[in-house]
């Protein structure tokens, strides 16, 4: 990996923030930019300023800017984060930000990665909901306090931002591992009594590259911006795997 640095001067005087951004695809280099340091600015604010005022060709993703969509996720000083909710004052290192695309995903250009493999694994884990009723049937009477509903609710807020996938060391060295987001989704469906394909989803989650490949290091849980625990979801799937083993289901 090349780390050639070029300095682009700031357009305003005053205290400066040094921002090192990965430019290019798999083969590329870091380029350094100096921008004014402003109070309460987020990392996404800084990237946007660089793109609008200094480097129009800089490629990155964002949408909502308020922590809802997750599309602005990047690697900030070595850690995957939502940049719209990461304030510079909390994440800089001696006035320096180093920004890279999310790890464990192919790089397209600059800070943009190809998410197709990530979503393919979500489908491989049986992540598509299949209802047992039609729109003509009355709504399912689901007890919100039942054990299975509470287990599903604990993991259901995932928005597939890819942060946990980027933080997972197993994903890095085992390409066929489904990853924490896909398995977290499988856990929610296994516990959703409305899901007609629960058995198939469980079978997929227990296959090679599934939950048993997890080393329970907790990186996904530590970095999840929503405070979810894919580690806990995967542990639940492992318990079901053990039950399946004793029942002779594998």
Automatic annotation (TrEMBL):
The protein in question is named Succinate dehydrogenase iron-sulfur subunit
Question: InterPro entries per the record?
Answer: 2Fe-2S_ferredoxin-like_sf (IPR036010), 2Fe-2S_ferredoxin-type (IPR001041), 2Fe2S_fd_BS (IPR006058), 4Fe4S_Fe-S-bd (IPR017896), Beta-grasp_dom_sf (IPR012675), Helical_ferredxn (IPR009051), SDH/FRD_Iron-Sulfur (IPR050573), Succ_DH/fum_Rdtase_Fe-S (IPR004489)
A Pfam cross-reference name: Fer4_17
Set out the biological process GO terms recorded for this chain's protein: respiratory electron transport chain; tricarboxylic acid cycle
List the pathway annotation.
Carbohydrate metabolism; tricarboxylic acid cycle; fumarate from succinate (bacterial route): step 1/1
State the CDD domains in the record: fer2
SUPFAM superfamilies for the chain = 2Fe-2S ferredoxin-like (SSF54292), alpha-helical ferredoxin (SSF46548)
What PROSITE patterns would the database entry show?
2FE2S_FER_1, 2FE2S_FER_2, 4FE4S_FER_2
What cofactors does this protein use?
[3Fe-4S] cluster; [2Fe-2S] cluster; [4Fe-4S] cluster
A single MF term (Gene Ontology): electron transfer activity
The 2Fe-2S ferredoxin-type domain sits at: 17-102
* E.C. designation(s): 1.3.5.1
Please list the reactions this protein catalyses: a quinone + succinate = fumarate + a quinol
